[in-house]
Amino acid sequence: QVQPVESGGGLVQAGGSLRLSCAASGRTFSGNNVAWFRQAPGKEREFVAAITWDGGNTYYSDSVKGRFTIARDNAKNTGYLQMNSLKPEDTALYYCAARSTGPLTTPRYSYWGQGTQVTVSS
């Protein structure tokens, strides 16, 4: 079973960068699509980015496209979300999720991490 664990969150000034990591327990990481979602207080969970199991396709929400980059290293069973030009509205709890099949941009994923907090100050 894929059990993602997020890390790399923190507090950063607007315009700064963070790199989130998503490590999967088990040995099935390479067989799963991976996505990042985020949820701010009082708001619904929001799709951020996704990458297919082979890394061949990536998807981004309009709000982060051009600023965030999703990647994966199957040899290390780890996914990444590089976040540049961060804005205060990016502040949220970021979750890594994985699934073998199904739509990539909806939150119906099979496995979820515990989340890592990203806070962007002005």
Protein architecture, described:
- It is built from no helices and 11 strands.
- It has 122 residues and is mostly beta strands.
- The strands form 2 sheets. Strands 2, 4, 5, 6, 9, 10 and 11 form a 7-stranded mixed β-sheet that branches.
- A hairpin with a 4-residue loop joins strand 7 and strand 8 (78-83).
- The termini are far apart.
- The mean pLDDT is 93.
Silhouette: globular
Number of contiguous helices: 0
Helix content: under 10%
Q: Give the termini distance in whole angstroms.
A: 40 Å
Structure classification: mainly beta
- The count of β-strands is 11
Low-confidence stretches: none
- The quaternary organization reads as single chain
Rg calc: 13 Å
- The overall pLDDT, averaged over residues, is 93
